[in-house]
Amino acid sequence: MARIFVTGVGFITSIGNDREAVSRSLRELRHGMVRYPPFDKPEVPVKVAAPVRGFGVDSPDPEDWTYPSEYRLKREVLRSLCPNALFAYCAMQQAIRDARLGDTDISNQDTGLYAASGGSPTILGRLLNQMYQQGVMRCPPLGIVASIAGTVQFNLVAHFKIKGVSCGLSSACASSSHALGFAFDDLVLGRQKRMFVVGAEDGNVDTILPFAGMRALSLNPDPDTASRPFDVARDGFVGTGGATVLVLETEAEVERRGVVPYCEVAGWGQASDGYNVAISHPEGHGLRLAIERSLRAAGIASTEVDYVNAHATSTPIGDISEVRALRAVFGSDIGRVAVSSTKALTGHGLSLAGAMETGFCALALREGFLPGSAHLSNPDPACAGMNIPRQTVAAEPRVVLNNSSGFGGANVCLVLRRA
Is there a smaller number of Cβ atoms within 10 Å at the N or the C end of the chain? Predict the structure, then answer.
């Protein structure tokens, strides 16, 4: 099979809006959590979120939005964007520069794009209210493409003139990991030579707060401890938004262009729990199978894995389900492999999470470190004997796994190897 490499990354996240800032936050365990002003109401029990900084996207008119000065967007581009598509547009520009891609590398039949986003409930809500209150023909012409779940794919494919394959994927919190897995398949099968993989979410009241009704969000009002995966006192996740873009290329393209990749994508696996619409199987059966399939596809033994970037969102049920899956895979080796959840720093990005955390793993592989699992003061007894570093470790991992799990028991494991 063709070998596939990550050659470019772009980040708009709660812990930094470029590669350097994100790497620094991962190394120094700088989190992105704040007391979120829109939640500062007596009737809202949730108080903490992890918003993106440097962007002002609350206005109903995109022309009034503010964003970092290094990005230039034309009026006709802004009209079809929602906040997460704006984040993705900016991250896409970063990834293109990082991978040293020219216009002809981007716009050709051999370059495609897979994206994941939950759409924009805020803009969709405004659109529907306007339709019912003012009439159908008073709605903005581009309201639909700026709001529904495929908005990131629609906009990036059109504005960056992508001519290869394109698709938007939706499997909740596993979405952008699925996007990367299927992009990998297209590359190894020779259908494409280069793929952009994108994950993006608004990260505002309308995308985060509905999870309170599921009892999934942390009610801890302290930003320093609200997200604490694997801790016995964890009580739910902290919501975040942003975007991450990854550039995947075949080995032939890497050699032709003379670029230095971040890491190799060695393989992936997926499996379903077949258990519950909203929560993971308590024994982690689906995730265990996804991990085992990913290792088999990559031709890598579990004893070769140095680090696992866990999906662990800081929920009581989900974290332990993943712990049990990892114990089943690694057995007596569980005390050797390092495991951490970077959601302790970023919060949970929903469909963004897989791409964002794969980007973190790519940085770790190229720069030589293992991200710590922040805010862990009293590990759950179920984690006894596991190697969960509380500080970032200077090390040079050779093989890392990135886990993602979504509604309906959708599980994905991505295998990355040092280039």
Answer: N
